Amino acid sequence: MAAEKINLLGLPRAELEQFVADRLGAKPFRARQLMKWIYKQGAHEFAAMTDLAKDFRAQLEEVACIKVPQIVTEQTAADGTRKWLLRMDEVQGIETVYIPEPDRGTLCISSQVGCAMDCTFCSTAQQGFNRNLSVAEIVGQVWLAQRELKGTRGDRAITNIVFMGMGEPLANYRNVVPAMRIFLDDLSYELSRRRVTLSTSGLVPQIYKLAEECNVALAVSLHAPNDALRNELVPINRKHPIEELLAACWHYLEKQNGRSITFEYVMLDGVNDAPEHARQLARLLRGRPAKLNLIPFNPFPGTRYKRSSVPAILRFRDILNDMGIIVTIRRTRGDDIDAACGQLAGRVNDRTLVRLGTKLVNPSVSA
Ligand code: SF4
């Protein structure tokens, strides 16, 4: 039986160099050429790689492939936000959202199918945990989006990548870190470390590990200003309480020479949006290199929470501002297509796709 072909999509540079040396007896520059073709040119067939010798391409065909995701559905919102549901082999969908803004284009990617963290306000949590995405599935989201966005906004449609889709990225550390190395590599997407953001609910040991191994921006889903409330909203807090989490964050920043950490705070009506919560939050973050991002909650079927009112959100922001905290309020995007992370895949996996009336797309790239 023929050995299974190696998928080159998702091999970081060092592993690709090792692969071409061990399996094909080729020099490292061949790996560098391959990377440029795959990520910069978006090639997924060796035949298209015209500056590689014919016999080298033939060798590659025998032992390797470039397996990219297929589009299951795609939707575009009135504000230009685009959302894809993708898949590689498995039945479950991988959700990716592109958010265009005047000064940037942000791709929000997933790291897992479902999530085990069980945050009570999150629609992904309702699906439970299904599996980790492979490196190829994580990088494949960017590859695919880049192909689909080609020609829009010049050559750099994607300027930022954020791990804020489905899943807790630090719970899939093994695959997320190599994927981030590819995003940062000059031979592929060439993003600066400030433009790749890993958002975590607070896996403290992995934050310390990441501080040693990969330099990207960190965002933390805080969502509550005290342990009693955070234990309820973000259950990982029972294992790693706020004090421990913040200590890990400041360590990360120091180690990485970073500027600041963004703390995400979902605004839940009557739950975490009282003036006293704002004051507690300000006391936690005051004098620290921290920014706070207030996120109006996006309700989903079956949730017990409601979005905070606009006056409550503004009052919350003002208290924090007055106490010296930098606060932004996230604009909700793609409301008409459920672009809040976690919502599309949840519905598709519930098999209610047909009723949603989404456009089914024939996969134009074979897996
Ligand atoms: S908020 Fe993030 S970490 Fe929490 S359950 Fe949802 S996807 Fe998982």
Element order, helices and strands?
EHHHEEEEEEHEHEHEHEHHEHEHEHHE
User: What is the average of the pLDDT values?
Assistant: 88
Gross geometry:
elongated
The CATH architecture category of the largest domain equals Alpha-Beta Barrel
Describe this protein with a few key phrases:
11-stranded mixed β-sheet, 15 strands, 37% helix, 2 domains, 367 residues, binds iron/sulfur cluster, 19% strand, TIM Barrel
Task: Summarize the model shown.
The protein is an alpha/beta fold.
Could you explain how this protein is built, in words?
The strands form three sheets. This protein has an eleven-stranded mixed β-sheet. Helix 5 (135-149) runs parallel beside helix 6 (173-184). The protein has 367 residues and is an alpha/beta fold. It is elongated and about 70 Å long. The model is unreliable at 346-367 (pLDDT under 50). The chain has two domains: 6-65, DNA polymerase, domain 1 (Orthogonal Bundle); 70-360, TIM Barrel, CATH 3.20.20.70. The relative contact order is 0.13. It is 37% helix and 19% strand. The structure holds iron/sulfur cluster (SF4). Iron/sulfur cluster (SF4) is lined by residues 115, 117-119, 122, 124-125, 166-168, 201, 221, 342.
Q: What's the helix and strand layout?
A:
Blueprint: E1 6-7, H1 13-24, H2 28-40, H3 54-63, E2 64-65, E3 70-76, E4 82-87, E5 94-101, E6 104-108, E7 112-114, H4 123-127, E8 129-132, H5 135-149, E9 160-163, H6 173-184, E10 196-200, H7 204-213, E11 217-221, H8 227-233, H9 242-256, E12 261-267, H10 275-285, E13 290-296, H11 310-322, E14 326-329, H12 343-349, H13 353-356, E15 359-360
Helix pairs in contact: 1-2, 5-6, 7-9, 10-11
Bound molecules: iron/sulfur cluster.
Iron/sulfur cluster (SF4) binds next to helix 4.
